[in-house]
Please model this.
Amino acid sequence: MLNNRCAIDIFERMKNLLKSSFVRKSLYLFAAIVIIILLLDNLIIPWYVNSPETIVPNVVALKSADAIDLLESTGFEPMIIDTSYGVNYPAGMIFLQKPTEGKIVKVGRKIYLFVSGGAYVVSVPQLIGKTVLDAKFALERLGLKLGRITQLPSDKPEEMIFDQQYADGTPLKKGQTVNITVSAGRGGGSIKVPDLIGKSLAQAEQILADSSLNIGKVNFQMSLTLLPNTVLDQYPSSGNKLNPGGSVDLFVTKSSDPEIREEEE
Model:
């Protein structure tokens, strides 16, 4: 009789435990873990262990499209992961693969590919109006090199660069050289270059004319803070001397139409 009461008591306690949501969730979780272990042990692991293996082909130095075709035809899953610049491969070619050539892997494995973006490209800086030393530093900061220096007589101040091989903004690969032409002067000018920065283009033209000088090349640049046709910079700078008829290059804020010089009243 006592044993029956104990059994009934245990049964009631089990029923009460099962009514608890925490206990039920724990049991469900335990059952799920058991099922996953059984699946791994009896299905997934045996399938992976017994699946066929093959050797990874070499796709380095192939064009990305050709590399993908080759890998797919041999049962792999190619994936392009990254594009890098400055590597020693032409743009669009594979320069690295993982796993590497010759590795024995399972058929259908993912092969990660890294594509060359080609050489670094930089824009040529403005060199006109600078000294040779300043031009050298400006080029080297961008990874370019100063090339041949030609010295010719001109109305520009002595030692000032007045021509460059590539216009500013021209894209070049890092390591390329830029030739420059430097003024040998005319034995010194007699007219002191006026300060034109902050003046309007019309005012600068009048000031230069009053000094028997001319406007040279006008380089238009965008500005969000200054009015159109405002002088931002000049070469040669104020204080240098030019001969009569010499020219001063200007950097001017861009208007809606760079070809139109607005006259100020």
Observations:
- The helical segments are 2-18, 21-50, 64-73, 132-141, 201-210.
- The chain has four domains: 2-50, 53-116, 121-183, 192-253.
- The longest helix spans residues 21-50.
